[in-house]
């Protein structure tokens, strides 16, 4: 057992929940799937002073083996109780309505993460596991049909023309993130990583970045229901292929939903967002908008316009929660919330004489 580390992120959840007693009890343990340790899990909080959460899981086992650290930390972050369970629901038929036609939505994007059982998560995955998992994905991608069909571009040996196109499309992920490096997610870079997208560039999968799989559905305009439907179909197709070929399935925990490397993404791991113009709210002020979004269980972010500068009135509005609600519930909240914000925006425009 190594000495209890100095945790530089003194106000992080790690500093609060990794006590000396727990360290002495757990720090000598290595997980079965990828030989992950508590020291590796909390590396970011130990090395840097700017972490809020500060912990990653190296495999599914980490959440069980180090549960005395993870459980209270996850409960505090997500605001759930110890006996809560998580229900997943990707049935797009249950969504009522859509974003109203008159709402000035520029684009819609929904992303989730998925992890295949039997392989480590990105911080712990071994080189062999990463390559085997990429192999399963290559075969799954080759079987995608119709609007989901497309090409897989491995990062290793990538042609410069392809690389530049992916950069131009804002699809490429790159190395160099200090948190991902400290957490062990950039080992053996760029081997075993890559990007898949369909012909329309509306269905996208990142392989072996922060999560084993980051699955994204997006398009111009505000058809949130349609974007969610494509996401659900794409996930199902990938899941069916992996299962048929390897017998492996996505890691789904009855308490924590879909397992991700970062506990902040547990549950749905879903961020559903639209870019929408809200000039009335802009005039009213960001603080007021943030407070209103909080009531609607949404999260606003500023956006940089096409030219690179903040255009002033366009916001990225997304679901606030990940765990404790199903995907359908979160999509519904986002649709209803954006419609509400726009109705209120019209009133605010009148108020401010816009």
Can you describe this structure in just a few lines?
With 354 residues, this protein is an alpha+beta fold. It has 13 helices and ten strands. Strand 9 and strand 10 (310-319) form a beta hairpin.
The chain-level structural class is alpha+beta
Quote the beta fraction. Answer: 15-25%
Radius of gyration: 21 Å
Total number of beta strands = 10
User: How confident overall, as mean pLDDT?
Assistant: 95
Question: What is the number of helical segments per DSSP (H or I, 4+ residues)?
Answer: 13
Instruction: Name the poorly predicted regions.
Output: 305-310
What general form does the structure show? globular
Helix and strand run: HHHHHHEHEHHEEEHEEEHHEEH
Reported for the largest beta sheet, the result is: 8 strands, antiparallel
Strand order of the largest sheet: 2-3-4-5-1-8-10-9
- Report how far the terminal alpha carbons are from each other: 65 Å
Strand-helix topology:
Blueprint: H1 13-17, H2 20-26, H3 38-41, H4 43-47, H5 60-65, H6 67-78, E1 105-114, H7 127-143, E2 150-154, H8 160-168, H9 178-182, E3 194-198, E4 203-207, E5 213-220, H10 224-246, E6 252-253, E7 257-258, E8 271-277, H11 279-284, H12 286-295, E9 298-304, E10 310-319, H13 327-351
Commentary on this structure:
This protein is of the alpha+beta class. The chain has 13 helices and ten strands. The strands form two sheets. The protein has an eight-stranded antiparallel beta sheet with strand order 2-3-4-5-1-8-10-9. Strands 6-7 form a two-stranded antiparallel ribbon. A hairpin with a 5-residue loop joins strand 4 and strand 5 (213-220). Helix 7 (127-143) packs across helix 10 (224-246). The chain is globular. The N and C termini lie far apart (65 Å).
